[in-house]
Design brief:
The complex is a heterodimer. By secondary structure, chain A is mainly α. Chain A contains 6 helices and no strands. Classes of the chains: A mainly alpha, B mainly alpha.
Chain lengths: ~140, ~190
């Protein structure tokens, strides 16, 4: 029979991987068996305590978050909805820029363009500046 | 397969596209591991959300070589490791403020017909394990929590942490020795 289990052998037992000799010793030694059972129980209770604590903290966190949010706060957008909104805004921005940059082809804008061209044409066709036009009339009258 | 793993509906593994069901099923476990590792509620919540976001983005690459639980825990382990390394100072400052199972009401131990004395002794020893876990190195604490809180076996822990099975075993032995010393047992 081997002496009482070492820390290494106890750990192997606790991890479910005892050597054959250690397993045989535990069967025969009430003291080591008791210690092993005690350690196992402590570790199981530790796991259970952490799980219970975590569940309680998760609930408390959810409650705190719900209380922190204003009652009239809008429903948060889901990731998909946010992406759709981003696309819609992007497309709207592209249209807005395009309407400023690209030439307009509506009938109304074509007519105003034609009127503007006529005014420019008239200005360009003048033989003298507009301020000298009364003098030119005098010259014509003298001829 | 661990005891907790058997609770998972077998269809879930094949239905990774049903992501909402996946989140409902595994969220508490990921959150629990993050909280026990970081001891910071906000950080645990952030890690949990990041974990499922990463999983969603990488779902096409999941080859079912391990269970979904192990895969998610691997993502969580990496996120926690990054967080601890990047924000070591903030982590410890904030962790010190958080109430743990040891504080206030003490550790909750189920009454299994033990005597009040035995119950009190067990509560004291479980509190000592909690304190010991706090003082473990990052790797030792990770494998210790995965084994004794998440009930994962050595191979699952190896996959989740990216360590070799032998390395996991070594860290677990060291963690157990430290814990047993903390609760007053000779090594």
């Amino acid at each position: 029979m081997i002496p009482h289990l070492s820390s290494q052998q106890l750990s192997e037992h606790l991890l479910g991987q005892p050597s054959v000799a250690a397993a045989r010793h535990v069967r025969d030694c009430a003291a080591c068996r008791a210690q092993l059972e005690r350690n196992r129980e402590e570790l199981e209770e530790f796991g259970a305590a952490v799980r219970a604590w975590s569940a309680g903290e998760a609930d408390r966190y959810q409650i705190n978050m719900a209380q922190a949010a204003p009652a009239s706060a809008p429903e948060p957008l889901s990731w998909r909805a946010s992406r759709q909104l981003a696309w819609a805004l992007l497309i709207a921005a592209i249209f807005a820029i395009a309407s400023l940059v690209l030439p307009r082809h509506s009938g109304e804008s074509a007519a105003s363009d034609a009127a503007l061209l006529q005014r420019v044409d008239a200005e360009v066709s003048r033989t003298v500046p507009s301020s000298m036009e009364p003098l030119m009339k005098l010259v014509v009258q003298e001829q | 397969m661990s005891a907790l793993e058997t609770e998972i509906h077998p269809d879930i593994a094949a239905r990774l596209d049903d992501f909402e069901a996946l989140v409902r099923l595994y969220r508490p476990r990921v959150f629990r591991f993050a909280l026990a590792s970081l001891r910071d509620l906000d950080a645990a919540e952030t890690i949990t959300q990041d974990c499922f976001l990463r999983a969603y983005q990488a779902r096409e690459r999941f080859r079912q070589e391990c269970s979904l639980h192990t895969w998610l825990m691997r993502i969580a382990v990496n996120l926690i490791r990054d967080r601890v390394r990047n924000r070591r100072l903030q982590f410890w400052r904030r962790a010190a403020k958080m109430a743990t199972p040891v504080d206030a009401g003490g550790v909750a131990i189920a009454d299994r017909g033990r005597s009040p004395e035995a119950q009190a002794l067990l509560r004291e020893r479980v509190a000592a394990i909690w304190t010991a876990a706090e003082n473990l190195s990052e790797k030792q604490r990770t494998v210790f929590l995965l084994r004794f809180v998440e009930d994962m076996d050595l191979l699952e822990i190896a996959v989740a942490t990216g360590m070799k099975e032998g390395t996991v075993k070594t860290h677990l032995f060291r963690a157990l020795r430290a814990v047993r010393e903390q609760i007053g047992e000779k090594s």
